Amino acid sequence: MPMPPTVSSLSVVIIITLFLLLSCDNNHYYPGNITILPVVSAMKLVVQRVKSASVSVDNTQISTIGPGILALVGLHVDDTTTDLQYCVKRLLNIKLWENESGAPWRKHVKQLNYEILCVSQFTLYGTLSKKYQPDYKLAMKSESARSMYSQFLEMLREGYTESKILDGEFGKMMDVMLVNDGPVTLIIDSREDVNGGKDSTVVDVDSSA
């Protein structure tokens, strides 16, 4: 008569099973329509099409733009230069405006000679505790984020025109004013292909919806 499995052997089986599940391909489907997807960190941009936007520090306006993009920039603790490159390419090429014939989503910021205002926003990686207090441990630490954010701005200027890229003041309390055009708001995720999507997703594009 076979002996029943011990607690120890059951633990080993459970551990091996979990390991195999987590090691499988991201897009593998299991019986019962269960999909195993990893939790992946990424750089985030909240992109808003604006008619105008400005940033003030200590009641003094330091940056202002007309038509263009206001981008809130969130850096994850694990972000690298690869994440910066991805977001720069997306931001400069995302088609938010109509063309000469009135067809929507055909023109990007460079084609219209518009401006981009960037604002560092570590709170994009805030999570709520059981006491509903924000926790920012997933956000990149201040000094590393300062360097990475500066590199991001430099890459944008190299990919467009230096005078067209404006920003707030890193690490300062800022008053951000904007007139959202549409409203149109999108989220760019530097690892969205791994997280389950190929393209940026429109969050809100119609004020009448």
Topology:
Layout: H1 7-23, E1 29-30, E2 34-35, E3 44-57, E4 60-65, E5 68-74, H2 81-93, E6 95-97, E7 107-108, E8 115-120, E9 127-128, E10 134-135, H3 142-159, E11 165-167, E12 175-189, E13 201-204
Parallel strand pairs: 5-8, 8-11
Antiparallel strand pairs: 1-2, 3-4, 3-5, 3-12, 6-7, 9-10, 12-13
Helix pairs in contact: 2-3
Notes on the protein architecture:
The chain has 209 residues and is α+β, with helices and mostly antiparallel strands. Helices cover 23% and strands 33% of the residues. It contains 3 helices and 13 strands. It has helices spanning 7-23, 81-93, 142-159; strands spanning 29-30, 34-35, 44-57, 60-65, 68-74, 95-97, 107-108, 115-120, 127-128, 134-135, 165-167, 175-189, 201-204. It is globular and about 50 Å long.
Order of helices and strands: HEEEEEHEEEEEHEEE
CATH superfamily: D-tyrosyl-tRNA(Tyr) deacylase
Report the mean per-residue pLDDT as an integer.
Answer: 83
Largest sheet, in brief, is: 7 strands, mixed
Shape: globular
Could you say what the CATH topology is called?
D-tyrosyl-trna(Tyr) Deacylase, Chain: A
- Oligomeric state of the chains in view: single chain
In short:
This protein has 209 residues and is of the alpha+beta class.
Descriptors:
single chain, 209 residues, alpha+beta, D-tyrosyl-trna(Tyr) Deacylase, Chain: A, 7-stranded mixed sheet, 13 strands, 23% helix, 33% strand, globular, disordered C terminus, DTD-like_sf, EC 3.1.1.96, Daa-tRNA_deacyls_DTD, hydrolase
